TrEMBL record:
Protein name, as recorded: ATP-binding protein
GO MF annotations in UniProt: ATP binding
Zinc is among the record's keywords: no
Residue ranges occupied by any Helicase HerA central domain in the UniProt entry: 10-72
Keywords of this entry: ATP-binding, Nucleotide-binding
Length: 479
């Protein structure tokens, strides 16, 4: 039996979950906001990352940090069509890739369509690819709602049908559903009823407590106990967990979400007139962006170049060897050309890296002359505005060392702050931070400052006159 430790019971003993049994019987997690559902899912994903293929449907982008530690592929659906997502679902099963489907940057309508298309692609994969997959769906009430909400009926039917297939017919195809929800009353009953394992967390509404008690086989008067559970405590029941309802406290995790919890910060006294000028400052109006057209994916130029090279090699056995020496100035120039392309700030890193590889091949360099990690570092340095001559200096090497300890998606933000602090420039504004984070959302970009302060790599100070950032350990600070 392959078991993993989920947490500790009331008596301090380990509470385990039988993974093969879980794959056969599915799991339902319920708890109000703040009860520890995301922590529980993260614990489950971390403990099984090396044991079984995983697919995470992530509506809030909380689980993208798994990629750094466990090699998960993060798929951002912002620029993907339903057809490409459906094909991606089939290919994920064929290549047995562990994936995080990140839905945070799209609206509710597209979240339902993207999740439905991707899950249907996994469900329709050929029989030869029916390997076991742990499919975790956070905020499942969004994808399998009882009633229609602000989204169209078509999107709701697509998502609900995919969730029903996952929980009702997925077992024979190797799909093991793990669904988490804040409200059992809002989750479609035909989806929830297929789970045989339950982890019920803190709940306050009577209708949810009564339904949780029914699922656990508890008396109605015993349902009041759900209100007394602490954060991270769950009542466990099921063939993969326990034959009788059992209290379990979820264990620690190694990764963490980028989201930060509420922290009380004392208010600084500011004159009302100063606040008036700041709050009512005129906002420039921008022309609306043109709507993107759904176009077929471009041909794989790298594959064509490689095929062309192979044909030429067969025709002419004696060929001059490609240049293999790493020329820093030439590499810097190629990355600069990629970064200078229109819209490059908001393109996925994989697209920019493919563009760099294509340019390298055109100049007679091997396509793997620079790995993805080094490309990301040089690109972030370029976007920070640092000159080539200073990039190899000892000061900047120290900043890059600190950046390497951070998640990959925030390294560019940190290096932008580092460059402004190194030269005692004013702190970058929200638009500059958003470009460094490759997002159009200014609020999402601002949250990265709080995350970096939480990681204790910067000290942030904000007052009525602006924002100031100091780098911990380097002694640099913005103007």
């Amino acid at each position: 039996m392959t078991s993993i430790v989920l947490g500790q019971g009331r008596d301090g003993s380990d509470t385990c979950i039988d993974l093969p049994e879980l794959l056969a019987t599915r799991l339902l997690v319920q708890g109000n906001s703040g009860s520890g559902k995301s922590h529980l899912l993260r614990r489950l994903l971390e403990q099984t990352a090396t044991l079984v293929q995983q697919v995470m449907i992530d509506p809030e982008g909380d689980f993208v940090t798994l990629a750094e530690h466990y090699g998960h592929l993060v798929i951002d659906v912002e620029d993907q069509s339903e057809a490409s997502l459906r094909a991606a679902g089939e290919r994920v099963r064929a290549h047995r890739a562990s994936v995080v489907l990140n839905l945070e940057q799209v609206e509710a309508e597209m979240q339902l369509r993207a999740a439905g298309a991707f899950l249907n692609g996994m469900f329709d994969a050929p029989r030869a690819h029916w390997y076991p997959v742990l499919v975790v769906v956070d905020e499942a009430q969004l994808f399998a709602p009882v009633t229609s909400g602000d989204t169209s009926d078509e999107a709701r039917r697509l998502s609900l049908g995919a969730m029903t297939n996952l929980m009702c017919r997925g077992r024979k195809r190797g799909l093991a559903g793990v669904i988490a929800t804040q409200r059992l009353a809002k989750l479609a009953k035909n989806v929830a009823a297929e789970a045989s394992n339950f982890l019920m967390g803190r709940t306050f509404l009577d209708i949810d407590m009564a339904r949780a008690a029914d699922l656990l086989g508890m008396e109605r008067r015993a349902a009041e106990a759900f209100r007394d559970l602490s954060r991270g405590q769950f009542m466990a029941l099921g063939p993969a967990l326990s034959r009788r309802p059992k209290l379990v406290s979820i264990g620690r995790v190694e990764t963490a979400s980028h989201a930060t919890g509420p922290v009380l910060v004392p208010l600084e006294p500011v004159a009302a007139e100063d606040l008036r000028d700041l709050i009512l400052e005129p906002v420039p109006e921008f022309a609306p962006r043109q709507r993107r057209e759904n176009r077929p994916p471009p041909p794989d130029l790298l594959a064509q170049l490689d095929a062309y090279g192979s044909e030429r090699a067969a025709e002419e056995p004696v060929m001059p060897e490609a240049q293999t020496d790493l020329d820093p100035d030439q590499i810097w120039k190629l990355v600069s050309e990629v970064a200078a392309e229109e819209g490059a700030d908001y393109k996925p890193l994989a697209t920019l890296y493919q563009d760099f590889q294509l340019r390298a091949r055109i100049h007679g360099l091997p396509r793997n002359i620079l790995d993805l990690k080094s490309f990301r570092r040089i690109l972030a340095t370029l976007r920070s505005g640092l000159e080539r001559e200073r990039a190899d200096g000892e000061d900047w090497r120290q900043a890059e060392t600190i950046a390497a300890s951070l998640p990959e998606d925030v390294q560019g933000v940190f290096l932008l702050l580092a460059r402004h602090a190194l030269d005692s420039l004013p702190c970058p504004d929200d638009e500059a931070l958003a470009r460094a984070y490759s997002t159009h959302s200014l609020g999402r970009a601002r949250r990265q400052l709080s995350y970096l302060e939480e990681r204790e790599v910067i000290v942030l100070r904000e007052d009525a006159h602006g924002r100031r950032v100091a780098l911990v350990g380097l002694g640099w600070q913005t103007l």
